[in-house]
Structure formats: C-alpha cells, structure tokens
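Lecture 7 notes: from sequence to structure.
We start with the chain below.
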Amino acid sequence: MRRAMRMRPTPRMDMITPGTIMVTITTMITITMMITITTVVTIIITTSIATTITTTTITPMLMTTSEPVPADAQSEMTADEAAALYRLMTWLSPSFPVGAFSYSSGIEWAVEAGDIADAASLRGWLAAMLTDGSGFCDAVFLAQAHRAASAGDDVGLREIAELAAAFVPSRERQLETTTQGRAFIDIARSAWACEGLDNMVAACGGVIVYPVAVGLVSAAHAIPVAPIVHAFLHAVVSNWISAGARLVPLGQTDSQRILAAIEVDVVSIAKRALESSLDDLGSATFRADLASLRHETQYTRLFRS
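Predicted structure tokens for the same chain:
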C-alpha cells in the first residue's frame, strides 16, 4: 500500500494574524537594509581602491616636479666665483665712472646723416660695428691682453697694447678709448688694488686703450677670460644703444628690444674673438669709420665722438 504523500497545508487567510504580518515586514526591511549596507560598503571599498591606485600613480609625478632643491645645490658658486661676478658687474656697469656716456663712437654723425633713423636702422648699424668693426677687434685685443698678462709675457703684452692703440681709425675714437682705458686703470688701482697690476701696466709701456685695460685688470684679479669678454661686449653695445636712444630718439622699450635682438650677435662675436689670434684682426665698417671722422667737424654735437 503506497504511503500517502503528506502535503504542507496552505495557511488560510483566517489564520494570518497582525503579528505574522509585522514579522514578515520586519524581515523584509532587515533584508533590504542588509542589501543596501552591503552595496554601500562595496562602493566605499571600490572607491578606496581606486583612490589608492590614483594616489599611487600621481604621487611620484608630484614628487618629481615639486621636490625642493637641496640647499647645497642652491649655493654651488664658490667665494672666488662670487667675487669675480661682483667685480664684473661693477667694472662694466654704466655707472662705473669711465665716462662712456659722453661718447657715441660716430653714431651721432650717422643720425645726422640719416643713416640711423629708427630702431631697425640702429640695430643694423650696431650689428655691423659689432661683427665686422670695432666690437670684434676690441674683443680680440682684450682676450689677447688677458692671456699675455696672465702668462707674464711682458714682450707680447707690449706689442698687443701698441697694436691696439694704432688700430683706432680716428682722432676722436682714439680720445674715446684711451680716456676710458686710463680711467679704468686708475679706478681699479684705487678701489681694487692687487698684486701684479702695476707691473702689467708698466709692461705696456705707454698708452693703454680701453679693451686692453679691461684685460689687464681682469687678469690681475684672476677672472677667467670668457666671462670678461662677454661682459665687455655687453657693456659696449649697451653704451651704443644708449647714445642712439638719445639721438634718434628712442624709448626705453625700443632700446631693450634692440639689446635683446643683438644678444645672438654678442654671443657669436665673443666666441669668435676667444678663438681668434692677432692675425685674424680686421675691420670692414668703412661707413662707421667715416662717421667717426666726420664727427670731428660736425656743427652741433652732444657727444665727444
């Protein structure tokens, strides 16, 4: 006889009580809250993992770009280098009293003749003087005088000084460079006296032009030749621009634009002069030489050359 299958009786509606309903609702709410909490926890964990990954990825980049420079790396200049820089900035500053502001190197006549009329023509004139005229030649004389003085070559130093004095194309330019040279030597002796400078000056045997004077003083103070050549050319060009700005006239902004534009020429000529010998000397700025000659008889003048 087959056992009858026992079926679970279905509760009748009259058997469901309010207590049963409350238990059922409470159970559903509890299950819902657990699901919600589980979801929130999952989101938080996922967000934390993503944040950790992002932070781990970005932190090295921030450390690379924002890492402070060590204190010792900020003070790599030695005491001797700092002193040399200080002296270069002083000696070749427009405020150093060698009287450079009173000379125009013939620019005054070029403005009077109409060769220089604006910023563009002044920039072209100065670039020519720098690369093919007195700028390059003076830089060579400075470098050669510095090397001869540093080596104690009195014979060579005298020859350089004599050649530099004979290389000037006009009487006014001769006055300009010898006056500044003498003033530079006198002030250096008074304020920055050092051993060996007097012997170097005596070895020249006579007139000392401005670039040779700068070479002697910088050699006596053991300042390397390369920075002094760059600083010298910057000072010369700055004085030319100052004269042109007063004569054309030009504003301060245009003057700075010319100085910025001619930077590449200064760097190039300094490098060329440092690599040149006295045999490489030469000038092809005939118009500038004529300007310095014509200035001697110019009717009205603001400058001495």
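Points to note: The CA atoms of residues 234 and 263 lie 8 Å apart. The domain at 87-297 is CATH 1.10.4190.10 (Urease accessory protein UreF).
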